[in-house]
Amino acid sequence: MNSKDNRLKKRLVNSTRKTKPNKNSFSGKVFLLINGGSFSNSGIISSILETLKRAVIIGDETGGNKSVLTSSFSIKTYTTLPNTKIVCDKPDYSTIIRDIDLNDGHGVFPTHKVIPTINDIINSNETELNFTLDLIRRK
Fold this sequence. Notes:
Strand order of the largest sheet: 1-2-7
Number of strands: 7
Strand content: 15-25%
Low-confidence stretches: 1-10
């Protein structure tokens, strides 16, 4: 592995610490709506809420990985795919969200899978939101 590839190994050691919740922090039930467009920071918060069992998660699997996030923060590097010759960004930084050994290549899965139909999308029906509101009313 050359030195450029070693950049992916950057990790903050001992950067996790427990904190006490604020006295006035929200203690009610949290409902989180997700879908394939949930990645990056929304993927991180989804992963944390799932890990801590702190939310009822509604929608479809997140687009981001629930265990690790890779991105480019400093040096922009590129790689060319061998068959298509498409040029892609090559990430140079990884953030471990939760136990890397649990990485299954998927995002966060919802507690309640709700997927809008094509007609819902065309008619601007808020399928996930309506499901969530019904769920709240029933509780």
